[in-house]
Design a protein that fits this description.
The complex is a heterodimer of chains A (231) and B (218).
Chain A lengths: L2 E7 L2 H6 L5 E6 L6 E6 L7 H19 L7 H16 L11 E6 L5 E6 L3 E5 L5 E3 L23 E5 L7 E5 L1 H4 L7 H12 L5 H10 L10 E7 L2
Antiparallel strand pairs in A: 1-10, 2-3, 3-4, 4-5, 5-8, 6-7, 6-9, 9-10
Helix pairs in contact in A: 2-3
Chain B lengths: L13 E9 L9 H18 L6 E10 L1 E10 L16 H13 L12 E6 L8 H9 L7 E7 L5 H8 L6 E4 L3 H19 L19
Parallel strand pairs in B: 1-2, 1-4, 4-5, 5-6
Antiparallel strand pairs in B: 2-3
Classes of the chains: A alpha+beta (231), B alpha/beta (218).
């Protein structure tokens, strides 16, 4: 079964303003199929915290249904996510709760999906050290696509991938983390989180401490980092 | 020391400001080039004095007078060393547009983690080279089209139509300086605009506009 270390922390801007973290994450580590989701609520929208939380739950809703079919395609999964997100939001208007959405979902039939709408990072470090970064469709300069903003299926970056192999590591991060990472060190970051943070008594708390002490000058964003691996 | 330091860049996210400055021969009269030099120097000095910023302001100055030239390569405002401009030659604005496009599209110079750049165009005359195609390329480029843009027309001979096309927004305003001292006022407005954005929660979003009649009307 996979292991997961993940956390979200408030960035200095939200700490200063007394606002809650607008990132959210969710992971399911199950014997048959696993799921990892990170979402970054857009700071300019008043209900984005709820939007990000609803998006993680919507991906779980959609994934549970999607797993039932051995022939479901990634597009099906994304369409269900979009619908489930709006239902999860109840009376909250989508445009007030805009959020990015990145996930990795195993279907239990020997396949897995990776999908990304908006900024952030999905990457995998294979057992031999090779790192593959999921291509994003980010528009750059923070002009990100998101649930709750005008977009189409074509704005999602998605693909089928092999499920995690033994000793392989998956990284999901919101842009508060990914924008400051050295591209050549993503694999080392995954290894550090899995081997060192994962070995501590309270990995989530240990990772949160590290993220709160983010070492990049002038950083302000909320930060979410999720590492999932198969020992 | 945080272990994360090994995996992260140690540079703050840059917020680029690119000034396209007309230094053609006509800028040499009525104290215009002197006013421009003073204004840009003050802008850079003001950026140097900024602290508590979310972004690190980077500045470049592209000149067009006789030929287009990168007078100040894009780099940290805090480390910028300004040398005064002279005025000479025609107005190759199209070549300046091309240099600006190449600059903002260069991922090594303006990394993907940079905030949206601000492009500032200042001119007192009409382009003397082919410019439509170059401006079109700038505005349609992936990153140039997303940049914030500001424009200043100096004197009665400035080509307002070209400057308005540069803004590519019918509601955006071409500022006008009838006297040299108003050049300085415009750059104070640029400074305020960039500084406000660099301090805001999201520097990729335009800072609230200053009161249109509240002292910023040149």
């Amino acid at each position: 079964m996979v292991r997961v270390v993940a956390t979200s922390v408030r960035g200095p801007a939200h700490v200063k303003e007394g606002l809650p973290c607008q990132d959210s994450w969710l992971a399911v580590a199950a014997p048959r199929a696993s799921l990892a989701v990170v979402c970054d609520g857009m700071g300019s929208r008043p209900r984005s915290r709820e939007g990000a939380r609803a998006a993680t739950l919507a991906v779980r809703d959609a994934w549970r249904l999607w797993q039932r079919s051995p022939v479901g395609i990634v597009e099906d999964l994304i369409r269900i996510v979009e619908a489930a997100w709006r239902l999860r939001l109840r009376e909250v208007a989508g445009e007030e709760a805009s959020t990015t959405c990145l996930f990795y979902a195993e279907d239990g039939h020997g396949r897995a999906a990776q999908a990304q709408l908006g900024d952030g990072l999905i990457a995998r470090r294979a057992a031999d050290g090779a790192v593959a970064v999921h291509p994003s469709r980010s528009e750059g300069f923070g002009l990100t696509h998101a649930l709750g903003t005008p977009h189409s299926l074509a704005d999602w970056s998605f693909t089928f991938v092999e499920p995690l192999a033994p000793r392989e590591r998956l990284v999901l991060a919101t842009d508060g983390v990914s924008e400051d990472l050295e591209a050549g060190r993503i694999g080392d970051l995954a290894t550090w989180v899995a081997d060192e943070i994962g070995a501590t008594q309270h990995p989530g708390r240990a990772l949160a401490r590290e993220l709160r002490n983010w070492p990049v000058p002038h950083h302000r964003d909320d930060k979410t980092l999720l590492v999932m691996w198969k020992p | 020391m945080s272990k994360l330091k090994e995996f992260t860049t140690q540079a703050a996210r840059p917020l680029p400001v690119v000034v396209l400055a007309d230094v053609s021969g006509s800028m040499g009269v009525d104290g215009k080039i002197q006013a421009l030099n003073l204004a840009v120097r003050e802008m850079i000095d003001a950026f140097k004095d900024e602290d508590d910023l979310r972004a690190e302001i980077h500045v470049s100055v592209i000149t067009f007078g006789g030929k287009a030239n990168v007078h100040l390569p894009l780099g940290r405002a805090a480390a910028a060393s300004w040398t005064d401009l002279g005025a000479n030659g025609g107005t190759p604005m199209g070549a300046a547009f091309e240099l600006a496009r190449a600059l903002v599209e260069d991922r090594n110079t303006v990394p993907s983690r940079a905030y949206r750049p601000t492009l500032v165009l200042v001119s007192d005359g009409q382009p003397t080279d082919e410019w439509k195609q170059q401006l079109d390329a700038l505005l349609k480029s992936e990153r140039g089209g997303k940049a914030f843009r500001m424009a200043l027309a100096i004197g009665a001979d400035a080509d307002h139509a070209v400057l308005q096309e540069f803004l590519a927004d019918a509601e955006a305003r071409v500022y006008r300086a009838d006297e040299a001292r108003q050049i300085r006022k415009f750059f104070q407005l640029v400074t305020m605009s960039v500084s406000a954005r660099s301090r805001s929660a999201n520097p990729n979003v335009a800072a609230p506009a200053a009161d249109p009649n509240g002292g910023w009307d040149l």
